[in-house]
């Protein structure tokens, strides 16, 4: 782990981590901004082993997930309007610097420390392994619903809602079927 646990942090042992193409881009330094040594992985599921003194949403032994970000400034207009993913000081799961100057380390590590606002509970009926896929899909789907323009037509909204409904069913125990 790369930093000390703060009062609003959740510490969890990594159980599973997905791999997608953005991890490969970072590993290969294709965008020319990778800092090595690099610990990638941003579709992460783990078991809580410690919580900070101000954490109320999670307890030790919870199964949790983290997607592509673990922090933001918390003070800009974007952060104050629930649009942290657009914060100029967003902290990605890996290859970014925390406020304390330490580098983030992703889900290929053995454990992670993440601010509670960027951690989600994985329902008991969902296998932790399936949770990796669901964490990233749910964040993408939720963001599309939050940002879709009403004048874009019903098909955009309907597809986003159907996407979320499918992901919700998986989190409630439906099996994944790849087409």
Automatic annotation (TrEMBL):
One of its GO terms (molecular function) is cinnamyl-alcohol dehydrogenase activity. It is an enzyme of class 1 (oxidoreductase). Residues 6-124 form the Alcohol dehydrogenase-like N-terminal domain. Its EC number is 1.1.1.195. Keywords: Metal-binding, Oxidoreductase, Zinc. InterPro entries: ADH-like_N (IPR013154), ADH_Zn_CS (IPR002328), CAD-like (IPR047109), GroES-like_sf (IPR011032). GO terms for biological process: lignin biosynthetic process. It comes from the Eukaryota. This is Cinnamyl-alcohol dehydrogenase.
